[in-house]
Amino acid sequence: MKKRERYHGWNIDWALAVTQTVSFGILFYAYSVFTIPMETEFGWTRAQTSGAFSLALFLSGVFAFPIGRWVDLRGARLPMSAGSVLASVLVFAWSYIDSLVGLYVVQALIGLAMGAILYDVAFTVIARWFLRHRIQAMLIVTSVAGLASTIFIPLTTVLVEWAGWQDALRILAVILAVTTVPLHALVVRDRPAAAGGDSGSSDGEEAESHVPTHGALRSLLFWRLTAGFSFDRIVTVALAAHSVPLLLERGHSAGLVAAATGSIGLLQVVGRLLFGPGARYLSLPQLTSLTFAVRVASLLVLAALPGVLGVWAFAVLFGLSNGATTLARAGIVGAAFGSRNYGAINGGMSTVIAVAQTVAPLSVGALRVAFGGYTVALVALGVIALLSLLSVGGMQLPAARAQAEAGRVTP
């Protein structure tokens, strides 16, 4: 009897786990380590360096829809491979910038590269290769990638102290190139059949129906999900930018604040590990609602519980919600609309979210200045978190999906 070959989708999954960890670590998390050295050398302000990074994040969302559309039609191997090469070249070029304009140009192009290689495209690949084990496959990638900050912030700090920020960037560029380019070019396949297999027989893809892109983008289901994840992202990004000064302003010690906020990254991994078993007992809409409810609870305890208990309760709940949200969005888009047009549909959602998240840190900062503290901003974020929960609460996926498949706008 012929031995059954290992399904190639799992090879892709573990390859993406590595490339997402390295890419997020270098392109996303390492930036904070370089801000002070660049500001010291060139005399730039924190607003100027933060603006360059915000531009990269914004453009990565803007590019998500056209890149996702390409991946749906032609596959992910080319954009992920080209994006890895581009990202490596740009990180190397970053080490030679000597003007603020140069930094903004490099970061803008890095935004394009991030749009081609980070979660949006990776989840599109996983959605195409998996059905029965889709959440498990996404859990592997996100759990490993959740360690990106834990690995690359200390590594980058050591490199900067040892070799200076320019040489540190050149070393990171080499790491990015030698890990991500070969894995994307040699392991990623555009479709299951391209690897000599059939995801239908291996993972049940034939049982999945697919919603046309135009039907999805015109449906109430899409806009309810987009609103929910946009509201949640506003809260997440705003608190990521302001949690440290907010907690310090409330009278907590610097050591406590550093320990609590630093633990959020590891708690994200815990949130993802809990999400997988949860999917056996709850539907994805129910899990998404629960995730948003935990986010609301994190803000409530931050506002209501005093002292150390309130800080740690906030960190635990916020971290768990952060981790679960990533899987909730990745899973529910596939469950709602199928995998055939996943890239374009998820990319359309990412574009809206990118616009929403861009204004979050600035708006909270403006409220803090206007009212002389973070209290009003915290209340506003609580209301927004509640809106995310209301957006998806009571959602019935099968009925809403049937209308989206027919290309109708739900009433």
What class do helices, strands and sheet pairing give? Answer: mainly alpha
Report the portion of residues in β strands. Answer: under 5%
Give the overall form: globular
Number of helical elements = 20
User: How many β-strand runs?
Assistant: 0
Query: Major sheet, described briefly?
Result: none
Task: State the end-to-end distance.
Answer: 55 Å
Helical percentage = over 70%
Please give the radius of gyration in angstroms. 21 Å
Low-pLDDT runs: 194-206
**H-E order:** HHHHHHHHHHHHHHHHHHHH
Q: Could you report the average pLDDT, rounded to the nearest whole number? A: 84
Descriptive notes:
This protein is mostly helical and 411 residues long. The protein has 20 helices and no strands. Helix 5 (77-94) packs antiparallel against helix 10 (165-186), helix 14 packs parallel to helix 16 (307-337) and helix 15 (284-304) runs antiparallel to helix 16. The longest helix has 31 residues, at 307-337. The protein is globular, with a radius of gyration of 21 Å. The protein starts with 7 loop residues before the first helix and ends in a 6-residue tail after the last helix.
